[in-house]
Specification:
Low-confidence stretches: 1-99
Structural class: mainly beta
Strand content: 25-35%
Helix content: under 10%
Number of strands: 24
Mean pLDDT: 80
Distance between the termini: 77 Å
Radius of gyration: 24 Å
């Protein structure tokens, strides 16, 4: 016999929300706690600004940066663009700067971990000169970590001719550009950035010009299915909720994202990633629930994998022994799969209990980097 979940009413307490027995929402923030054998939905206090991580990082647009000047490598057909550079970086700098008055008009690019963009999306390298963004070149990356032009052809020495002296640049930035982009304005998704020092720039994800500091990020989640009316398949849902504290709290601590990026949760089932929804606010529900039941879930990111299973999978799912991941996705995005940036991951124990908080692992050491070396 299927046991029905007990979902009594919850009164409004301070900042929260009231949920009546007919499941009507009055607004605000909600989560759930156990009563008897299963659920009580209760109010969760709102987070004061900053308690879920650093505030939004500085953005190129916020610092008055605008596109300017030469379209170096705009079509990806520069005669000096390529990938897969190895060797002594410092030697290249020393040779290129041996003459104080020699203009350094080209940028040699070394990459580590940048993924291939599809659907016409591509990367663009920018030099920040006098607080303006000057395009240096457009490129993509193939499966062998070789920088290629927009036709997919590896270009010699991964070197972009910017058509200007780059010694006056203060920093370099790589953006993700949409298909068909031909303007000289940086796209909204700033990916890696870094200052120019001694003729080279190490560009990283955790920059004030891009996505900010993830060193304090963390995640807690539970297995539960609050959107159905029974407790038979609790292992089919994942919700980023921390039940180890009283009252229960949102389970993610992540920096607020700048424009051009969104978070996305994933359940990886036998190697197949299934999105649990995109979100920007860890203290609110995510943007979709295509697999959940008819009841309202807690106001945190998560999903019950109960119905409408993707091809090749069967729902209700069993997430024990599987993986859950939180990614950072460009917006707009170029495909439906997980992006390279995966700050939080967890392998769910095959014997994991439902309605118990589990921790995620911080994986910022996997974030990609890119290095620019100025050459003549």
């Amino acid at each position: 016999m299927r046991q029905e979940k007990n979902v009594p009413s919850v009164t409004r307490v301070g900042v929260g929300y009231t949920r009546s027995q007919d499941n009507q929402r009055s607004g605000g923030v909600t989560t759930m706690r156990t009563i008897g054998l299963r659920y009580l939905r209760a109010a969760v206090v709102l987070c004061v600004p900053g308690c879920f991580g650093p505030q939004p990082p500085d953005r190129l647009a916020d610092t008055g940066l605008a596109a300017t000047g030469t379209q170096g490598g705009e079509t990806g057909e520069s005669s000096e663009t390529s990938g897969g550079v190895e060797g002594d970086t410092q030697a290249s700098v020393d040779e290129s700067s041996s003459g104080a008055d020699v203009e350094l008009r080209s940028a040699r690019l070394q990459i580590d971990g940048l993924g291939t963009l599809s659907g016409g999306f591509h990367y663009e390298l920018w030099a920040i000169i006098d607080n303006f963004a000057a395009t240096v070149g457009k490129f993509n990356v193939d499966g062998g970590q070789v920088v290629v032009d927009l036709r997919g052809i590896a270009v010699p020495d991964a070197t972009f001719d910017a058509g200007r002296d780059l010694r006056t640049a203060t920093s370099f930035v790589v953006t993700i550009e949409t298909a068909g982009d031909v303007d000289i304005t940086p796209g909204v998704s700033k990916y890696v950035a870094g200052p120019l020092e001694d003729g080279q720039s190490l560009m990283v994800v955790q920059s004030s010009q891009t996505l900010g500091d993830y060193s304090g990020a963390s995640g807690q989640f539970i297995l539960a299915t609050p959107t159905d009316s029974t407790d038979v398949t609790e292992e089919a849902g994942v919700w980023w909720l921390d039940l180890s504290v009283e009252p229960p709290a949102p389970g993610l601590m992540l920096p607020e994202l700048p424009e051009g990026w969104e978070y996305e949760g994933w359940a990886v089932i036998d190697g197949t990633p299934v999105s649990t929804g995109r979100f920007r606010d860890v203290n609110a529900a995510d943007f979709g629930n295509p697999f959940s039941g008819l009841e309202r879930g807690p106001m945190v990111p998560g999903e019950d994998l109960l119905d409408n299973a993707p091809k090749g999978l069967e729902f209700p799912a069993d997430l024990r022994g599987q993986s859950v991941v939180v990614t950072i996705e460009p917006e707009p995005d170029f495909d439906d799969g997980p992006f390279t940036l995966r700050p939080l991951t967890a392998d769910v124990d095959p014997m994991a209990a439902t309605m118990q908080s589990m921790s995620m692992t911080l994986q910022i050491e996997t974030f990609p980097t890119a290095t620019v070396v100025l050459v003549e």
